[in-house]
Design brief:
The structure is a homodimer of 473-residue chains. Chain A is of the alpha/beta class and 473 residues long. The first copy, chain A, has 15 helices and twelve strands. Chain A has a seven-stranded mixed sheet with strand order 2-8-7-6-5-3-4, with helices on both faces. In chain A, a hairpin with a 7-residue loop joins strand 9 (385-387) and strand 10. At the A-B interface, helix 1, helix 2, helix 3, helix 4 and helix 5 of A face helix 1, helix 2, helix 3, helix 4 and helix 5 of B.
Chain lengths: 473, 473
């Protein structure tokens, strides 16, 4: 492709993104295509000869876009958000153009040093302890796996890396923990049976006494407790595990404390939300995702550790072909995680933080928190609806309750969710809390305004009314 | 940022990338900054208030670019290449703008279905067996870890996921294998001591008889052989392990056969290079990196498996909050690897394959292979230099040899490499083959032409001459 063609389509795609940001509301939030519909429209074999960029873009426009579920839609209330932002997209253009592979300092000195600096900024922004050192991972799944592996090595004196895992090591989290903990426990060889799901209180937060009880029982049975994963902001209901109490138990029993704050961590840039981090001094590791609620393109997960040497000792490899003259003086981030190859992710974080400024980011998060409180008040005021969990952050868990008893309520709420989402006007997802089917409205998309939350509530009420009318319960 | 500002800087950055592609030769290939130099120029705290994009870009230009090692430089001969291309960068703009998180089919139907289609294209392009199914991973490190984990689960009847790894399982690879195998073996809990590095022949390829011998010995000792990792194109010298012979041994002993073709795999788009894949019918899994030699932005690793059900069973998790109505009819790629969250990586592959066409891609690879043969002939014709390994692909391993015996040769070649790279005109790296320090010249950057390889050779000769003159050996 010659320079002029690249430039022409580069401009065109920038325009496309600019329009997309402005007009995303015209699309249904969740794509309405049927399984196989996109695939059927694509040739099953690759083209032998070059195709023009016009043709390729035309297919993108006609075939791909109808199959996109719009994570950047202001009426995105599903899962947690995965935000981008103009500054982040701009940075991604440069990152893609430079095409650096940032495995070692020498293969991209600026990427390694910018990562160190920007992770220092994030640490300060969240008010994390000074002693923590940061590294960018792709996702919280990966960061948590890193934590579990480092905990495994520490508790076995770095012997499982050498001789293989032979002991029954135990991991603890609450019964509200994210599925990535289970996945990590399996990958690292602990085994699903050695993950204890500690009971939670009425706010869905881990009960410290129950944790200590489980640790004592395991010790009595000859098992070796290794790691506790506490969650700040569970996926189901953003419950906040009591860090200080859990930390004290970890300290007493010599357990690794990993904190999964994938979504909620960003809220700690607000001084008024720092209460979540009380007990942070006990943390061995901490992860949160700027790609969720800090407007930085997926993927970008911020992982902080108290003891980088333990992390490095868990992962480092020393093949001759990767040695460079600077190895003793620099950070080679290839030894700070699973993958050898690494993208230049620090650049987009740097662009985003500078483009908004800390106060700019705070303002958006404060508005999201305000909107959640507002939505919560609407739910509470409407007797047909029921709030299903506390709202410490910007996720509201609720359900329709016609007051005729539990039987059939799950099915009714499932139908309600389907009707709401079928509208295409909003996208919500569900969860299960104490076995009950619950609707989740997660506020956190960068462009979500009061009018979007209000429209969602009007739609929910309308669909609920319709459902109650036709319901033959 | 308003739409006009985004558009203005979007254009500006597209221009920057267009110029970068054209003018990258004006930069030294490997950044000459000293450790700490970039960091010292960056503020240690984040800005409280928003900064203008002019200011941010200005800092990118002045502070960051001097610290970039230019992987897209045509005189990049280090490691293996990590190519981008105009089509790939264009796709990345759209990917960043859409900002989809592709964990489940429903969260991005187009991404899931395009991935399925494009991986089918790659399978056909490489002439891989029909029975293989593809999924995009970030890196070969991750793909190989997936293979090791699936092998672990298959050999333990999917019990280590549940009860934890308790048996001594053994993994085999050649003594030339990539460091990511050792890393994966440690992560998956096998333990470094249970990785057997099978001896290699004079071409640095695994000796099948030695593999079988090792397997028999381990069985005799009561250990359980689990997995063989064969390499097509080792990192040190692109040695090609004999797949068919290794495959037969795996078949006989019921071992998982994973094939790491991270760099070399792309060459299989050339019918004349398909000999590498003889025995492919024995493979349980196969990985190659389009981000290396297929002009698709890092990260993009193509992982193929014979039995997707085994892969899924290794990784799947079923939290309520991820369930969707379509789960039984679609591919949810979150269950095909380590991470839950996934970028929309299929788009750039689609753009690249269509923009070049299969024949267009073949032409570039054929030219790289031709240039390597040419460079090899220059080395062979110059009596001061010595070829250190066969050249089956586009990597040439060589060294300076003044004919005065082995003592001091390593040090002399180390000095030679330093002088070559200090010029900034080219970037080469080194390896160790049978304990000897060897220079690697890897040809594979998209824009590398004969003049770049020729200039590299002239520089190497000039520096060697200088060194031989001043050497007091």
């Amino acid at each position: 492709m010659d320079k002029e063609t690249f430039r022409k389509f580069g401009y065109k795609f920038v325009d496309w993104v600019a329009d997309y940001f402005e007009e995303v509301e015209k699309y249904p939030v969740c794509s309405a295509v049927k399984p196989g519909e996109i695939k059927d429209r694509l040739p099953s074999s690759p083209p032998l000869h070059a195709e023009r960029m016009d043709t390729i873009f035309d297919d993108f426009d006609k075939i791909i876009t109808p199959g996109i579920t719009h994570w950047q839609h202001p009426s995105w209330f599903a899962y947690f958000p995965a935000n981008n932002s103009p500054a982040s997209v701009l940075a991604e253009i440069l990152t893609a153009g430079v095409g650096a592979q940032c495995m070692s300092w020498q293969t991209s000195p600026a990427a390694a040093e910018l990562e160190e600096v920007v992770m220092g900024w994030l640490r300060q922004m969240l008010g994390l302890p000074d002693g923590l050192t940061g590294v960018i991972q792709d996702t919280a799944s990966t960061a948590t796996l890193c934590a579990l592996l480092t905990a495994r090595e520490r508790v076995t004196g770095f012997k499982s890396n050498q001789g293989g895992l032979r002991e029954p090591l135990v991991v603890y989290s609450s019964d509200q923990t994210h599925s990535s903990i289970e996945k990590g426990v399996k990958i690292a060889g602990f085994g699903r049976e050695n993950l204890r799901l500690v009971p939670t209180d009425e706010a869905y937060a881990m009960i410290p006494d129950k944790l200590e009880e489980a640790v004592r029982q395991d010790k009595k049975r000859g098992l070796k407790p290794a790691c506790v994963v506490a969650t700040l902001g569970t996926t189901s209901s953003t419950a906040i595990d009591p860090l200080a109490d859990i930390g004290r138990i970890c300290g007493k029993h010599g357990l690794w404390l990993h904190v999964d704050a994938a979504f909620a961590g960003s809220a700690a840039i607000l001084p008024e939300m720092r209460w979540m981090l009380e007990g942070a001094e006990f943390m061995d590791s901490f992860v949160f995702n700027p790609h969720k609620w800090l407007f930085t393109n997926f993927d970008c997960s911020a992982y902080f550790v108290k003891d980088p040497a333990a992390l490095i000792r868990t992962f480092e490899i020393h093949p001759e072909y990767l040695k460079t003259g600077h190895d003793s003086q620099v950070k080679n981030y290839r030894d700070w995680g699973i993958q050898l190859g690494r993208r230049f992710r620090a650049l987009k974080l740097w662009f985003v933080i500078r483009s908004y400024g800390v106060e700019g980011l705070r303002a958006i998060l404060r508005e999201h928190l305000r909107l959640a409180k507002l939505f919560k008040s609407w739910v509470e005021e409407d007797e047909r609806f029921e709030l299903m969990a506390p709202v410490p952050l910007s996720l509201v868990c609720f359900r329709l309750n016609d007051g005729r008893g539990e039987a059939g309520l799950d099915e009714m709420n499932k139908q309600l969710l389907e009707k709401i989402n079928a509208s295409g006007a909003v996208y919500l997802t569900h969860t299960s809390l104490r076995g009950r089917y619950v609707l989740r409205l997660a506020i956190g998309q960068r462009t979500t305004q009061e009018r979007h939350v209000h429209a969602a509530w009007e739609l929910i009420k309308r669909e609920a009314e319709e459902l109650l009318k036709t319901s033959n319960r």
